[in-house]
Design a protein that fits this description.
With about 120 residues, the protein is mainly beta. Helices cover about 0% and strands about 45% of the residues. It contains no helices and eleven strands. Strands 2, 4, 5, 6, 9, 10 and 11 form a seven-stranded mixed sheet that branches. The termini are far apart.
Length: about 120
């Protein structure tokens, strides 16, 4: 059983930065991508970013492109989401997800494992 634990959320002023971490335990050797999604109150879950198993391929949602960076610590290691130039509209619960589709990194329905989420709040 895969378990994902996110950390690094918090309260930050607009223009500031935060770094989220996602540690996976119980991993099996596979090549499926891991990703970050977010959900704000009253809104649908939104794709943020995803990365493949060795970090060679990444994908970003349009709303965060150029401001957020996803990376990982070695092959199948801890996944990070560096969030810079944060805006109030980035406020949401951020979820780490694992074992997504290699054909569509942004397809949330394809991810088999999810973390409990970490709150990010950006004040104006």
């Amino acid at each position: 059983q895969v378990r994902l634990v996110e950390s690094g959320g918090g309260l930050v002023q607009a223009g500031g930065s935060l770094r989220l971490s996602c540690v996976a335990s119980g991993r099996t050797a596979d090549t499926y991508p891991e990703g970050w999604f977010r959900q704000a109150p009253g809104k649908e879950r939104e794709f943020v970013a995803a990365i493949n198993w060795n970090g060679a391929m990444t994908l970003y949602g349009n709303s965060v492109k150029g401001r957020f960076t996803i990376s990982r610590e070695g092959a199948r290691g801890t996944v990070y989401l560096q969030m810079d130039s944060l805006k109030p509209e980035d406020t949401a619960v951020y979820y780490c997800a694992a074992d997504g589709s290699e054909l569509d990194y942004s397809d949330s329905d394809a991810y088999g494992y999810w973390g409990q989420g970490t709150q990010v709040t950006v004040s104006s």
